[in-house]
Backbone:
């Protein structure tokens, strides 16, 4: 990790005299929502069915994220795993039973049921993250992952006490002994609010407000001085919004049905708590100006361009009304600027040459999997090559190839086990037959013994006959 050594880091976002983002606004209840349940989820509802706010729409599964209705009303359609619900304007809540949580496995099952994911942007299922490691250290990410996202800062300023309760829940769920909160040093109001509620056993560390200090590996290094992955250091990381969602789920039995996000336009920012599945057009009253056809979803650096019909999902943390300007992509001039700026000390220029076509071996040797897709290389590339997008696509293809290989290996293993089982069964039957043949051919056996063996074999054969000849004849008549 060479993050701290590089001077020409990316700085961005808006400049504020006072960073006070309290009073998170709540938009009016939407008339309809469209909830994307994911390709692999098993949907358990049907069109025409009445649902309540928080009611599960999919079957809880360890491998997928559980989805819930974000409003009460009637399901109007299900199209390509997207459940559309027309609101009845009542917002009647689905009642979950109070959970009994005594072990880490209890928390995993409950968080899966509640549909909790990492709220920092990556969206990794919480129950899977807890299951993957038994940590010594719990790292809480209070640093925004992008220069133009302010929702976490607003959440800390307004609901610091609830976040701390969620941190205690995360400590119980993971079994971690130590806890560190990493926060950027320019978030003075948020730091004050956290310090009011933090117990002495939780350490608050202020880090430089330089992008991408919010990346979990960079954050861990800046907070502890230890290099290597979090897994190598027996650490696990959760976003502050994730901890808040844990508090809501455990203390109030509320699944993840809302999302706090930043609306950034011109030189102003508003933070709202929107229902999952709400379209941007429905949120138009929260914008100062009419929505353009295209907006940026996900931040200034890592955001992607979407149309104004886009619906809020669990990973939506920011909406920028300024569209990224179209740039002509030119050939790479091998300037090396991308390598100088990379916080993970990768060689983006070399990675770029092996993404088209995909060279699996070279990309693995160049540790493409360590790319955090921060888009610093995009920002400094004079040829305007969308390196982060190319690396994202390459990582997805490598992951698909890995999954296909694992499935093929699993099928091969099952086939070989079945073949061995059949061979063992044939060998056992052959030994039994040889043994019986030897007994029959043994001259020492008396005629009575031989007849008894033959009768036993005939009876065994007769007992295995599925139907008598008489019944067959009756059917033929």
Residues:
């Amino acid at each position: 990790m060479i993050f701290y050594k590089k001077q020409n880091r990316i700085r961005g976002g808006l400049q504020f005299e006072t960073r006070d983002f309290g009073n998170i606004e709540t938009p009016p209840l939407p008339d309809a929502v469209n909830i994307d349940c994911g390709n692999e989820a098993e949907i358990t509802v049907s069109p025409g069915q009445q649902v309540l706010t928080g009611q599960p729409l999919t079957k809880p599964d360890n491998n997928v994220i559980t989805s819930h209705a974000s409003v009460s009303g009637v399901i109007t359609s299900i199209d390509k795993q997207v459940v559309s619900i027309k609101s009845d304007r009542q917002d009647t809540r689905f009642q979950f039973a109070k959970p009994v949580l005594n072990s880490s496995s209890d928390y995993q099952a409950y968080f899966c049921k509640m549909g909790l994911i990492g709220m920092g942007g990556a969206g990794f299922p919480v129950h899977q993250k807890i299951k993957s490691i038994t940590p010594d250290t719990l790292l809480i990410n209070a640093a925004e992952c992008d220069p133009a996202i302010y929702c976490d800062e607003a959440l800390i300023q307004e609901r610091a006490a609830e976040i701390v309760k969620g941190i205690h829940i995360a400590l119980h769920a993971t079994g971690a002994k130590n806890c560190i909160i990493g926060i950027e040093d320019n978030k003075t109001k948020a730091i004050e609010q956290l310090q009011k509620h933090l117990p002495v056993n939780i350490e608050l560390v202020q880090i430089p407000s330089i992008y991408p200090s919010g990346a979990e590996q960079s954050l861990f290094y800046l907070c502890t001085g230890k290099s290597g992955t979090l897994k190598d250091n027996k650490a696990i990381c959760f976003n502050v919004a994730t901890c808040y969602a844990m508090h809501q789920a455990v203390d109030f039995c509320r699944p993840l049905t809302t999302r706090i996000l930043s609306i950034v336009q011109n030189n102003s920012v508003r933070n709202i708590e929107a229902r999952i599945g709400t379209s941007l057009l429905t949120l138009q009253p929260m914008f100062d100006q009419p929505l353009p056809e295209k907006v940026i979803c996900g931040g200034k650096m890592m955001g992607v361009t979407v149309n104004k019909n886009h619906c809020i999902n669990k990973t939506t943390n920011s909406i920028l009304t300024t569209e990224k300007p179209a740039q002509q992509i030119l050939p790479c001039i091998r300037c090396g600027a991308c390598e100088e700026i990379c916080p993970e000390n990768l060689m983006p220029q070399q990675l770029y040459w092996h993404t088209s076509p995909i060279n699996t071996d070279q990309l693995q040797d160049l540790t493409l999997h360590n790319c955090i897709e921060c888009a610093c290389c995009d920002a400094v590339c004079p040829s305007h090559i969308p390196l982060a997008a190319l690396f994202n696509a390459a990582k997805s293809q490598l992951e698909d190839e890995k999954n296909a290989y694992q499935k093929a290996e699993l099928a091969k293993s099952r086939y070989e086990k079945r073949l061995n089982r059949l061979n063992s069964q044939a060998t056992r039957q052959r030994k039994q037959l040889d043994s019986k043949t030897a007994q029959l051919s043994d001259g020492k056996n008396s005629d009575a013994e031989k007849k008894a063996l033959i009768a036993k074999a005939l009876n065994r054969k007769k007992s295995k006959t599925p139907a008598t000849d008489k019944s067959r004849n009756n059917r033929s008549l």
Remarks:
- Confidence is low (pLDDT under 50) at residues 1-8.
- The longest helix spans residues 387-441.
